[in-house]
Design brief:
Order of helices and strands: EEEEHEHHEEEEEHEHHH
CATH class of the largest domain: Alpha Beta
Oligomer: single chain
Helix content: 25-40%
Largest sheet: 6 strands, mixed
Shape: globular
Number of helices: 7
Distance between the termini: 27 Å
CATH topology of the largest domain: Metallo-beta-lactamase, Chain A
CATH architecture of the largest domain: 4-Layer Sandwich
Strand order of the largest sheet: 1-2-3-4-5-6
Number of strands: 11
Strand content: 15-25%
Structural class: alpha/beta
CATH superfamily of the largest domain: Ribonuclease Z/Hydroxyacylglutathione hydrolase-like
């Protein structure tokens, strides 16, 4: 919802590093950008794959994923939004494996996913990193051998992420960005392989951009709330009319088709600011 690295880059998926292929789903839109990125991961020379976010229930897409993946050991989900998870169970049944996710509602089989776990398949190592904020169940995955972070919707290949209030929380999201930044520094991760949009080749710069963008937006929202003539916040939710006026002020340069999503982020920002004293 704002400019970022990757803007203007044509994107159709493809092979990345020695262990990954992105299969782009044909579901482009204002919220899905070019479409959902389904990631097929496999250790060189191995027979089994890991599939991350099978995406929507579109037969041609799932056929392509199955063709690239071959034998699939497990399906992993970054989060439960339908553009990532809708086809997970049906695809897993088709290829004869389970679905692992943080939220039990999206699993197929008994195994979940938790922060710090390592998924190993035929020498491939995928490390699980809890990154709540966009949603409460958002996960990212570190692929150490490729120095790559698979970020789902926590970091996108272009634009910035909606904090999907009320399930998404801005405080948690900021903590997740800082956590990914520290992890990228510690593990020398350079690549961002996102859930939508093109891959990015400078993880630290991308995360710096995201953090700076959030600080800027928070100050804009804070200032907009100060200038509104009516009390900006009720004891419960931020008043819808006030939220819309903040969106019209702060997101004036954003396509109005995205204002519904912007309202979710503004509600998350208002809630965040309510818990912090004015400066």
């Amino acid at each position: 919802m704002s400019s970022a690295a990757g803007d203007g880059v044509a994107w159709s998926g493809g092979a990345f590093g020695e262990r990954a292929r992105c299969v782009l789903a044909p579901n482009p839109g204002t919220m899905t950008l070019d479409g959902t990125n389904t990631w097929v991961l496999r250790e060189p020379g191995a027979s089994r794959s890991v599939v991350v976010d099978p995406g929507p229930e579109i037969a041609t897409h799932l056929d392509a994923v199955a063709s690239y993946a071959g034998e699939v050991a497990v399906v992993l989900l970054t989060h439960g939004h339908l553009d990532h998870s809708e086809a997970a169970a049906s695809f897993a049944r088709r290829v004869g494996c389970g679905v692992r996710a943080l939220d039990p509602r999206h699993r197929l089989g008994e195994e979940g996913l938790g922060d710090g776990e390592v998924v190993e398949v035929d020498g491939l190592e995928v490390q699980v990193v809890a990154t709540p904020g966009h949603t409460s169940d958002s996960l990212s995955f570190l692929l150490p051998a490729e120095r790559a972070l698979l970020t789902g919707d926590t970091v996108l290949g272009r634009g910035t992420t909606v904090v999907a209030h009320p399930d998404g929380r801005l405080g948690a999201y900021l903590d997740s960005l800082h956590r990914l930044h520290a992890l990228a520094e510690e593990r020398e991760a350079t690549w961002v392989w996102p859930g939508h949009g093109p891959v990015l080749d400078d993880a630290l710069a991308t995360l710096d951009h995201y953090l700076a963008h959030r600080r800027e937006r928070l100050e804009q929202v804070r200032e907009a709330l100060r200038t509104l003539p009516d009390p900006p916040v009720t004891e419960g939710e931020a008043d819808r009319d006030v939220v819309r006026r903040v969106v019209e002020t702060v997101y004036a340069d954003v396509d109005p088709r995205l204002w519904g999503a912007a309202e979710l982020s503004v509600r998350a920002q208002v809630e965040y600011l309510r818990g912090r004293p004015a400066r």
